[in-house]
Amino acid sequence: MRRLRRCLQHWMIRSLGYWNPRNSRVCGKSGTQGALTGVGLSIGYPLALNGSPAGLSVMSAAPGGPAEKAGIMSGDVILAIDDTSAQDMDIYDAADRLQGPEGSSIDLTILSGADTRHVVLKRERYTLNPVRSRMCEIPGSEDSSKIGYIKLTTFNQNAAGSVKEAIKKLRENNVKAFVLDLRNNSGGLFPEGIEIAKIWMDKGVIVYICDSRGVRDIYEADGASTVAASEPLVVLGKQRNRKCK
C-alpha cells in the first residue's frame, strides 16, 4: 500500500516543476498592487500544442502600456526576448525579463498572424486599470435595449473598486443588464476575486477551498458589498486563463 501511495503521489506531481524562490519575487511585483514598471504584457503558453509556434502567447496588453502602444495584441506570440529564444523559456523567467528599471529598453521578436517583427519597447511605470467599460445598445429592442459591458483584465487591488465605478457610470446611462468579460483575464489576488463576486451576489456560497483532510474554508456573500444583484448578468470566460505579467 505504501508503494502504491508513493506511485500515485509521483504520478500526480510529475508534471510540476521546482518552485524557485525567485518565482515568488516575480509574482510579488507582477502588478497585483495596481502599478508596475515594465512593458504591460500578460503572458501564457500557446493554447495549441500541435502546430503552434514555439514561444509565449500574449494574453493581454495593459491599456496605455508600452506594448499596447506598439500594437502588440492578445494572440500574438513572443518568439524571443532580447535575442534569447522563448521556445523553452520558463514563464517566470520571461516575466522577470519583461520587467526592469524605468526607461530601460527591451527587444521583442513578435509573431502576429503570419508576420514576424522586432519591437523595441521602453519600460514605463504605469498604473494598471483593470477595467474597460462601455454601453451597448440592441437595435429594435425596447425595455432592455441598453447593456453595460465590463471587461476585467486582472484581479489587482484596484479591481473591485474599478468594477463598482464602472457599474455606477453605466447606470447613469440607464443600462438594464450587464456583461462581465473575463476572457484573457490574467488572474491576480484571490481576495479581490471574492470582493468582485460579492458585487453581483447578495447571498450564497461564492467558493470553498477544501484541503487534503476535508477541512473547508467557505466564502459567502452576505449582501453587505452587493451593488448589482438586481440586474441580469452574463459572464464571458475562456477555457484557459494564465497568469503572469
TrEMBL record:
The keyword Hydrolase applies. Pfam families: PDZ_6, Peptidase_S41. GO terms for molecular function: endopeptidase activity; serine-type peptidase activity. InterPro entries: ClpP/crotonase-like_dom_sf (IPR029045), PDZ (IPR001478), PDZ_6 (IPR041489), PDZ_sf (IPR036034), Tail-specific_protease (IPR005151). Residues 25-99 form the PDZ domain. PROSITE patterns: PDZ. CDD domains: cpPDZ_CPP-like. Keywords: Hydrolase, Protease, Serine protease. It comes from the Eukaryota. SUPFAM superfamilies: ClpP/crotonase, PDZ domain-like. One of its GO terms (biological process) is proteolysis. Belongs to the peptidase S41A family. PANTHER family: CARBOXYL-TERMINAL-PROCESSING PEPTIDASE 2, CHLOROPLASTIC, TAIL-SPECIFIC PROTEASE. This is PDZ domain-containing protein. It comes from Aegilops tauschii subsp. strangulata (Goatgrass).
